[in-house]
Amino acid sequence: MTDATPGAPRHVVMAVASGIARDARVRKSALAVAAAGHRVTVLWGDHEGSAVVEGELGPVRTIGLPVPYLLRDERARRIARRRAWRPAWPAYRSRTALRTAGMRLAADSARVEGRGLVARGLLRVRTLVHRVRARAFGVQERAFASLWRRRDRRRLARLDRLDWRRELANVADLEAAFTKWLWRLEPDVLHIHDIHLLGAGVQAARRLAAQGRRVPLVYDAHEYVPGMTGGDVVAEAGYQAMEAELIGAADAVVTVSEPIADALVERYHLPRRPVVVLNTPSAGEPARAPAGVREVAGVAEGVPLLVYSGVLGKLRNIPTVVRALAELDGVHFAAVCVPNAHYPVARALATLAEEVGVADRVHLVDPVDPEQVIDFLRSADVGVHPMVRGLANHEMALPNKLFDYVYAGLPVVVSDVAEMQRFVREWGVGRTFDPDDPAALAAEVRAVLADLPAYRERAASPELRAAFSWERQAANLAALYAEIAR
Fold first, then answer.
1. Looking at domain 11-70+166-276, does it have CATH number 3.10.20.30?
2. Nearest in space to 254 (alpha carbons), one of 414, 5, 41, 28
3. Taking residues 286-291, what's their average pLDDT?
4. Which of 288, 313, 341, 415 has the greatest CB tally within 10 Å of its CB?
């Protein structure tokens, strides 16, 4: 163990690769460990900064480290250059060169009148050469596209032998920014949030061990990494290989749901089951928001209002809600957009609402501070979460927004993914639906609105709040740290 006296308060250094302003889990975890009597420092990744930024979160010291992602970006440029290489002849080397030559030829053609026979003859020759090179460019592009498809298939076939250190250049950037800070802060416990910094945590723990200090390493798995999909399959395989290699170095594992804890034990043969800490709200009165979501969206009292709060990524499947509105006369939908209501995905949702003919009933609003979310959502009628099913990470998750809705007193209409469906049916707080079917979503919304008082009463259940409150989750975290302190 560490050099500290057994049972004495520890200096706990937590680390997360991203910002903490809207990361409720990291913020609450840090405060819970501090409330258990330990000194806590949180290192977080500042992707836009150029200097170290220090601050405070109550009794917790926070340090933002600039992460320029130079290695990641250089690798991306190198791959782009390699994929963009083309022979200079006979085809054009790039689409830009093709368009430029075409524009120059068109301009010269417009000026050919009144010029001599030789000039017109040269123009005809240039036009012929341009057509040949343009046609060769098309053939060349198809050939190179086929070449890269074959190469990608070969890479995917070798995923079981993937070198994650080579593929995850962003992880190398993070390790360069964080590792020295992790051991120089002289921690008694290292607590790594999410997969991205697990390598930095392992390296820091090894450095401290080489100095004669045995520092426990806690790995907080926010996702079921082997069940994540929908993005870059090579990167996904890289994270899986990284977790498989490094999770055994952790002295304790924390995760976000019971099924994920079971899956981690089975997959990695862990000597002890991970501690489950759900990402749930406090049972106490939440911080007051300046206004409710109904007021911000401009929806009158008595008008049915659905709400979604969170990131609008592809796997969250929010367009299904917009399409369902076509079958829900008079029902409005407010999307609380993280990080804001103006970024491209939010604008695309507004465009879809116009196409479906429900733009007057779709409201994109900016988020509030994490501590104000519960109060902000209270004025809506139903919380919705249509995330796609069939992904292991989704099937085993109990998302924080599910609890945000319930603690705001809202019944829910959510996808019929396994763990979320089990929770909704067990507590009777809403309905589930097929996330691929907007009509099914509309039908379940109508069913909940038809019996809204009963669903609201079950959502306000004191037993539910006592069973899932953050205070209960913080007790699990405090018990883990008491064991570490012993």
1. no
2. 28
3. 94
4. 415
